[in-house]
Design brief:
- With about 325 residues, the chain is of the alpha+beta class.
- It folds into two domains: about 180 residues, Sandwich (Jelly Rolls), CATH 2.60.120; about 110 residues, Arc Repressor Mutant, subunit A (Orthogonal Bundle).
- It is built from 14 helices and eleven strands.
- It has a six-stranded mixed β-sheet with strand order 9-1-10-3-6-11, covered by helices on one side.
- Strand 4 and strand 5 form a beta hairpin.
- Helix 8 crosses helix 9.
- The longest helix is centred in the middle third of the chain and has 23 residues.
- The chain is globular and about 70 Å long.
- The two termini are about 25 Å apart.
Length: about 325
């Protein structure tokens, strides 16, 4: 009998980086990359994408008007914007220009670049979506703000611009390995998107969640322990010690930043890892249980069913069938 399939072990560096394992769970891949060239007066209205969107201005100046954002945002060449997916938005030469519905225009052509407005290329924009699996949507879309804007002078924006350009080229290419390249470029783009978020996160403007915790100097050490060694029986005292805080202060701070108490988060993280393993690996349930710190398969199965509503084996069958 062939040995069970299993994921490759993480390096020690990966274990110290909570983002690495989280990204493995997202299933990120590039869903669509298109370009826009424009001149004169123009405006395009886009529906809420329902997924992670990225727009890069390569040339010119445009305005972004987004549902729920009070003021139009001016975007210059080299700027990057990230949309978490649940709001309509408009790209325009001027916020006062009445918009045209973008979808019929995009659907009417298979060309890489859509042109709108007058003659010439005063403005060049490329945009795309990063598709995520169910775990990825839960992990990311629920904790990212509706709009992230990185100016052209930032290192993250420079890298994201290059990655978007390359993703567009590969996704439209017939060259050998193009689909593989586009998929991995999309994953690198997602890393840059999250780095942009982490350099701008603050308590006043961003909601609670594990990503905000990564940017919190007090909470991040405890989060790294939980993500790096989820099988260990972490106590509140151990996690508080890693954060150099009292148990009471740590619990209050963790809940303020992440949205749930520390041990509740740890249990939820274990369940995410279990779901990922059941979906992608043939590892026996008993081995998964042990790898996540459960004393028996029965204890793990009960915890998993409480979390997902299904027993582990039933979950594996259902998720693979879908």
């Amino acid at each position: 009998m062939a040995a069970p399939l299993s994921a490759p072990p993480l390096s020690s560096a990966a274990l110290r980086d909570p983002l690495t394992k989280a990204l493995e769970l997202t299933g990120a891949h590039c869903a669509l990359s298109r370009g826009l060239t424009a001149a004169g007066d123009w405006a395009l209205a886009f529906p809420a994408p329902g997924r992670l969107g990225v727009q890069v201005v390569l040339q010119g100046v445009i305005w972004l008007v987004m549902q729920g954002i009070d003021h139009p945002v001016r975007l210059e060449a080299g700027d990057v914007t990230v949309f978490s997916g649940d709001r309509r938005y408009t790209l325009a030469s001027d916020p006062a220009v009445p918009p045209t519905d973008a979808l019929p225009l995009l659907q009417a052509t298979t060309e890489t670049f859509l042109h709108i407005g007058g003659e010439g290329r005063e403005t060049v924009v490329i945009g795309g979506h990063i598709d995520l699996n169910t775990a990825g949507k839960d992990l990311l879309l629920s904790v990212l703000p509706p709009l992230i804007h990185a100016g052209a002078t930032t290192a993250e924006a420079t890298t994201a611009c290059w990655l978007m350009d390359q993703t567009l080229r590969e996704s439209r290419s017939d060259a050998p390995g193009a689909a593989f390249a586009a998929q991995h470029l999309a994953q690198l783009l997602l890393v840059q998107v999250l780095r942009i978020f982490l350099t701008r996160v603050n308590a006043e403007t961003h909601q609670t969640g594990w990503l905000r915790a990564l940017a919190d100097d007090r909470i991040a050490p405890a989060l790294r322990l939980m993500h790096g060694s989820p099988a260990l029986p972490w106590s509140l005292a151990q996690l508080a010690r890693a954060a150099a805080m009292s148990r009471t202060s740590f619990t209050l701070r963790f809940k303020e930043v992440v949205g749930v108490p520390p041990l509740t988060y740890l249990r939820a993280w274990r369940m995410r890892l279990a779901q990922h393993a059941l979906w992608l690996e043939d590892t026996p349930v008993s081995v998964i249980a042990s790898s996540l710190g459960y004393s028996s398969e029965s204890a793990f199965s009960n915890a998993f069913k409480r979390s997902t509503g299904m027993a582990p084996r039933r979950y594996r069958e259902a998720v693979r069938a879908s």
